[in-house]
Write a structure and sequence with these properties.
Keywords: Oxidoreductase. This protein is of the alpha/beta class and about 425 residues long. About 25% of the residues lie in helices and about 20% in strands. It contains nine helices and 21 strands. The chain starts with 6 loop residues before the first strand and ends with a helix.
């Protein structure tokens, strides 16, 4: 193929979600020509991979996409799915991105003369820079043991869950207690379904404490400005499971112990299927205790901040367990339990096989510093803890985009100066 006939762009962005469009916003502000490829529709995952009662777990005032801060009537509330989609539609209108929807990027390879060759389902282009804005949640994680479960059991992944009515009558096993697992278990529980929950090692936090949303306290304490380099876990924080809490019905705690009192069956982590029953770890009590320890620890840090700054606030408190398992069930007979469906909520793995550039570590994760890789011209954005807690959320992805675009602009300026010399 004659590359002289291929259209060239200074920047190609792969992914049309909030990260890709935030990058487009800052490129446009600097007058840098670019193109966005999105294999589905812009904001696809928000439209198609969220359940009907989904809402944000962070308050609306933290929604601060570039040029499109939340301006609605309820800054302390939590946008529901339809409101989120409307907010994102407004953001797209602000950005007016040069986007090609329904186009998949098949491969990105370096060019001998510099820059990159980008092969897509609609043709070929070349680019000086490639920004990977496709996120890190590509392939749902489902254990191989799922293949051995009876065909009568309906199995879906969290991204495909919409509501209780889509599942057959009977009990539902939710596997995983991170944000999605805990909230889907609650959604089913509130719909009157018999829920069995396999609890993992996810931590939890309070929704409100001492008169305010915990998020507001943590923002005042500077937690959301802490970079990955400053975090005690350093890059290990990127592997952390998010705390479970909810913004539903104005926001509240998710207390799995309370659900157990109301009839939800709790188990340890799911480990195997023995041909007739499900086998669980006997670590439920420890998992619940660890989650509560994190909950109380966050509140204690808020107590310390209030005391050190002489802030008037309601009295402190410590969560005390309202239920404890009376022994642990290591096995559940599927037939006897009446379980008709399983919702897998154990996360996703990234798939960057299309990016044929040496920017990955031994575990297949991109190596970068605030999205800037060691390979000139390759950038990542929108990943969890790319730089701060908000990097994968509406709150700080815009700042990360501005940083990356600044790097791209400086690189282009350097190239111009070099050619002039």
């Amino acid at each position: 193929m004659n590359e002289n006939l291929i259209q060239h762009y200074p920047v190609v962005i792969v992914g049309g979600g909030q990260a890709g469009l935030s990058t487009s916003y800052h490129l446009r502000a600097r007058g840098i020509d670019h193109l966005v490829f999105e294999k589905h529709k812009a904001m696809h995952s928000w439209q198609t991979q969220r359940w009907d009662n989904f809402c944000l777990v962070t308050p609306n005032w933290q929604c601060d996409l570039p040029g499109h801060s939340y301006a609605g009537p309820d800054p302390d509330g939590f946008m529901k799915k339809d409101e989120i989609l409307a907010y994102l539609d407004g953001f797209r209108a602000v950005v007016e991105p040069p986007i090609r929807e329904g186009v998949s990027v098949r491969r990105v390879t370096p060019r001998a003369e510099g820059g990159f060759h980008v092969s897509t389902t609609s043709g070929e282009v070349t680019a000086d820079n490639v920004v990977v804005a496709s996120g890190g949640y590509h392939e749902p994680i489902v254990p191989r043991m799922a293949e051995r479960l009876p065909a009568s059991i309906r199995q879906i992944q969290s991204a495909d869950y919409r509501n209780a009515d889509q599942l057959p009558e009977g009990g539902v096993l939710v596997v995983g207690s991170g944000q999605s697992g805990a909230q889907i278990a609650e959604d089913l529980h509130l719909a009157g379904r018999k829920v069995h929950l396999a609890v993992g090692n996810a931590p939890r936090c309070a929704r409100f404490y001492r008169g305010r949303d915990v998020v507001a306290w943590l923002a005042d304490m500077g937690y959301y400005e802490m970079s990955v380099d400053q975090h005690p876990l350093r890059e290990g924080v990127r592997d952390n499971t998010n705390h479970y809490v909810t913004g539903r019905d104005g926001g509240r705690d998710i207390d799995l112990r309370k659900f157990a009192l109301e009839g939800m069956e709790l188990y340890g982590a799911l480990r195997d299927y023995d041909g007739a029953g499900l086998v669980f770890d006997t670590g439920l009590a420890q998992a619940l205790d660890d989650a509560d320890r994190t909950y109380n620890g966050i509140n204690a840090a808020i107590d310390k901040y209030i005391a050190e700054n002489g802030i008037e606030a309601p009295a402190p408190s410590v969560y005390a367990p309202v239920w404890r398992p009376a022994g642990e069930r290591g096995r559940l007979d599927l037939a006897a339990s009446g379980i008709s469906a399983i919702v897998w909520c154990i996360g996703f793995r990234p798939d960057f096989r299309w990016l044929d550039v040496p920017v990955f570590n031994g575990a297949g994760h991109p190596q970068h510093r605030r999205g800037v890789t060691q390979r000139e011209g390759v950038y990542f954005i929108g990943l969890p803890w790319l730089h701060t807690w908000g990097s994968g959320r509406f709150g700080a992805v815009g700042r990360d985009a501005a940083h990356i675009v600044g790097h791209i602009a400086a690189r282009a300026e350097g190239a111009l100066q070099g050619s002039a010399a």
